[in-house]
Amino acid sequence: DKCTAIAVNRRGNQPTLVAQNMDLPGFYQEFATLLRIKYDDRPDALVLTCPGLIGVNGMNSDAVAVCCNSLLQLKPSQTGLPCLFVVRGVLEQRNLKEAESWLKKIPHAVGQNYTIGDPSGARAFECSATDKVRFAPRQNADFTYHTNHPLVNTDWHPDYLKRCQQLGRKPEQGLSVCHRFESLENRVQADKPITEKTIVDALASRDHPRGPICGDWTYACTVFVLREKPEVHVSPGRPDRFQMQSFGFK
After folding, report:
1. 3-state class of 15 per DSSP?
2. Nearest to residue 232, comparing CAs of 38, 86, 20, 83?
């Protein structure tokens, strides 16, 4: 419940960027794995994962990328598609339009924010058992970011509603403040450049007094560079400690 995602649309010569700190429990650490998957009937894929999972985020050879953030406050469904299968399903799509249509069509097993993009731009969607709602930091923004608090979807988990009632809080207020989101608001702004360096610096930051974006829970940092020949830049661990490595498609 600590993942942080950032994306920005293409700006001039700068391609669309979709990025994430994938934060996982401690027992996964030091096993960062990137799968290179070749298909005959669909785009090839580069998929970040950890041993035992089918993938946690990724990018395909048609330059479609997806990142995800848990939203445990939203309603789950026992008949929905698990989030890691959603990630792999997005990577079977040919462009952002197809990915968005597919994401809205399928049932979702758990609350999750999906940030998806292609060379034309990027969008974020808060998905739950019955709702799929697009999130943007402000109207007409050409960028987005997200952590682990629902901001537009109000399809609440019954247990979460109960806890809020016990504490005398409205569900929109949340059970706690997300300091990582506050850091993103300060670092990623419409009137400032949002480059790959801006994004990596934000994902590597530890300067918020009440909660760093980057910590010992950060399994890997990925930046998907979505252009005609897409690349993924990956740090196999905390981005403030590990150098980014580049991978692409032949």
Report:
1. coil
2. 20
